[in-house]
Amino acid sequence: MSLERVNPAGLSPATGFSHAVTATGGQLVLLAGQTALDGAGKVVGETLPAQFERALGNLLTALAATGGGPDDLARVTVYATDIADYRAHAAELGRVWRRLAGREYPAMAVIGVVRLWDEQALVELDGIAVLPHPKP
To answer: Is the pTM of this model over 0.70?
Structure first.
């Protein structure tokens, strides 16, 4: 299995995402949306960066349970209740991503939403990963 990140020269520079990702072979993993819920089902973190870190950690925990890791992510969608706040914290969110998931970026989109399932949630992440082989 291989993932190839494609960033054509004719498009704007891909900073914090890849324009396209191709996957060859492997097992497809669809990851449900994750917010900043703790093990008891309560939203933790008062700020967008704190909630983003927890939500990304939860997404990576779900991925790890399938036998995958951050490099297997082909696509991540971020749903944010305040796009201006997300943009204001973009550098900090990038540092969180690199610390938890590394320097390889999947194809990504950030979508503004009115609210999420849990009213206290500021951000939610879902994703698609491709693993090298089926989990035994």
So the answer is: yes
